[in-house]
Amino acid sequence: MASNGRGKPRRPVHFGPEAMEAYGGMTPDPADLVEAAHQSAHYVVVAGRDDDSAERFVELVDQVGLSTLAELWSERPARTLPGVLWRLYVIREWIRRDPDRASREYAAGVRFAEAHHAVAGSAEPPGPTDVALVADEILRGAYNGDFAVALERASAFCHVVASGRAELADAADVDDPADGTRQTELAATMHDTAKDLRVAATLWRAGELT
Question: pTM value?
Fold first, then answer.
């Protein structure tokens, strides 16, 4: 979850047979990919606000797969609508795949980021089920609540996790410096994501998150 378009090279987007067929068997133009990313993100946010559709869009990854969303949104900058949606779904998917680790990192960060913990709205103490529920609640709020508030909750959640990762990295560094370094880097990445989500909330309120 990089904070901008710079840094390590990203993997190219690969299209399956159906997508290639739509473009006459040729790779789509990069401008078409950008347009498709932003149009689809706008559609998801608008359509998800339908009371009958909100839950379906919360579970979008379960329906279409993370790789499909990656093709659409993963290459877009963090402070754009498709970039934001990608990060929200990746966070949810990470928690669903490893709820024990997610809750452990979150719990480790609570005492260092109490204000963010209050905004995120997780239970005290946060167990694996509680943390998973928060992820779903944040996405649900993006569709049937205030989108900016949902982004702020996601940002706060990431701040707490980043703090927890940093704390656990310090402990790991004693026995395994290489693992400590890796955990520190993961903490920094999550902290960047938290900042991006907070800025995105401000952009949404200003009508500038597209």
Answer: 0.82
